[in-house]
Amino acid sequence: MKTITQQKPLEEILEAVGADTSLFIVGCGTCATLCRTGGVDDVAAMAERLTAAGKIVTGTAVPPTGCDEVTAEIRSAYRDQLRAADVVLVMSCAFGVQTAAAQLKKPVAPALDTLFVGKEGPAGQYMEICMQFGECVLSDTGGICPVTLCHKGLLNGPCGGTNDGMCEVGNGRECAWTLIYNRLETQGRLERMRRYHPPKSHNAVLRPGMMDLTHSREEAAKQ
Amino acid sequence: MSKFKEALESGKFVVTAEIGPPKGVNLEPVKHHIELVKDRVDGLNVTDNQSSVLRYPSLGGAIMIKELGGEPILQMTCRDRNRLALQADLFFAYSRGVTNVLCLTGDAVVVGDHKSAKGVFDLDSVQLLDAIQTLSEGTDLAGNPLDGAPHFCKGAIVTPEAKPLAPQLVKFEKKIAAGAEFIQTQAIYDLNNFRNFMDYARKFDVKILAGIVLLTSAGMAKFMNKNVPGIFVPQALIDELAGAPKGKALETGIGIAARMIRTIREEKLADGVHIMAIGKEETVPRILDLAGINGNQRTS
Q: How many domains are there within chain A?
């Protein structure tokens, strides 16, 4: 499971940086490295492009995970370079941008757009397979999520846009309900698809999602 | 009971047609189309931001049909409104005498002209049918009692040429179980395929209206085959259109539509037809003339 990111166009990054001239760049050694959007090479390339565009890059760092390891160690290791920067350009997912914003006490600018949390398939391909909506229906759908894999999130079967088993929105997306039908048929469980699924709750997870596990940890510690 | 529902239950060959509202507020052309067609059919559909392209609303068009003395069928997609808005619009429709509803999922937003819009899909078409049933029983979708319950004649759609077809049919059966009283089909052109579909569909207690989309040229037919999921125009019809004398392709298309309607009626292939003369609504009376459907089709 990886957070899939895509680099913003340079013009948009420069627009976000605005009049500030000096930048410190933070990358990410995990997901953004894998996406080739925020690894060591990508950070170095960005530093070059920004320098060519007239900016001063005071330093760069690529922590092992950008989302939760922009730690005190980084702050002390790069103290002077961070101090010299007007703004921190973050080449990780939005988790990393928000972590940097909270911990580095500097204005931040995201260099990437965060697209989705994807499961790795063959040959470096990623697919979004769960949207965390809080009412799992996978038992009735052959373990394939229609809320995520159907473009419209339909719960009761395919729309009329099925096109030889592909989705009408195109770009190689398969029709989730064709996949679900085929799997349930193989399992001899098509009656699961025949069930009426009432409208899902869009507030099964009250957004923003929150969870406090300290209470259950305390309970577990007592036993 | 709505006049359309009466027509469905009368056992006669039912004819409906479709009105595409304008992009904007110039209602003169659509008014003209309604007046041309309203007394020749049992019901007039109004499309709901068809193909995810912004238009004057289906509810506005349906009320206009009512005011002009026609029988409206409100198309309602799940793409643009959540369950609060859908139920409120159903109240409004009913209060203004619009009592037939066709429930559709709606096309994906990205195929339309507002590609960045949020596709809502809070309900799907089966759930919308169920919601209408729930309202008629006097409660809303949250289970709260209504002060006055609306009673609609409700319908849905099916795509007999969908590939693969089997998952579509599961949904078709769910729509009927959720209370669909009539089903309009996506455009059909191959009557042998349609016969096979009807051999299956006849087993269910629901009226089927065969979808007739007017072909205007060989190019349009080829375009639909290539780009519109669930539509299959056989090569013989494409050749017929291509062989039409210069400037006569539309006339050939009108002839094809009329011939299909005549065959469906004479062979009792379906309970009726739904004519979609997209952008060429003024041709509907001529299609009906050629199909041998004359005079006042309306039951009133």
A: 2
pLDDT at A122 over 90: no
* Final residue of a structural domain among A90, A116, A142: A116
User: Are A112 and A135 within one domain?
Assistant: no
Question: Could you tell me if B136 lies within 8 Å of chain A, comparing CB atoms?
Answer: no
pLDDT per position as a tens digit, B116-138: 999 999 999 999 999 999 999 99
pLDDT of residue A74: 83
Which of A151, A162, A196 is closest, CB to CB, to B162? A162
B122 to chain A, any CB pair closer than 8 A? The answer is yes
Question: Chain B residues with CB inside 8 Å of A202's CB?
Answer: 122
CA of B129: which chain A residue's CA is closest? A198
B168/A199 Cβ within 8 A: no
- How far is CA A181 from each of CA A173, A184, A220, rounded to the nearest angstrom? 16, 5, 42
Residue B149 lies in a domain: yes
Q: How many residues does chain A have?
A: 223
Instruction: Classify residue A122: in a domain, yes or no.
Output: no
Closest Cα in chain B to A164? B163
Same domain? A10 vs A99: yes
- B215-273 pLDDT, tens per residue? 999 999 999 999 998 999 999 999 999 999 999 999 999 999 999 999 999 999 999 99
Say if A181 is an interface residue toward chain B (CB within 8 Å). Answer: yes
A137 has a chain B CB within 8 A of its CB: no
pTM attached to this predicted model: 0.94
> Which chain A residue has the Cα nearest residue B106?
A159
CATH number, position B185:
3.20.20.220
Distances from the Cα of A31 to the Cαs of A44, A63, A90, A102, A115, in angstroms? Answer: 17, 11, 13, 20, 12
CA B279 to chain centre: 15
Mean pLDDT for B161-188 is: 97
* ipTM computed for the complex: 0.94
Domain of A162 in residue numbering reads as 129-223
> Does residue A191 sit at the B interface (CB-CB below 8 Å)?
no
Q: Do residues A10 and A94 both lie within one domain?
A: yes
Contact B164 A199 (CB under 8 A): no
By residue range, what is the domain housing residue B282? 3-214+269-287
Q: Which of B288, B195, B270, B186 is nearest to B8 (CA)?
A: B270
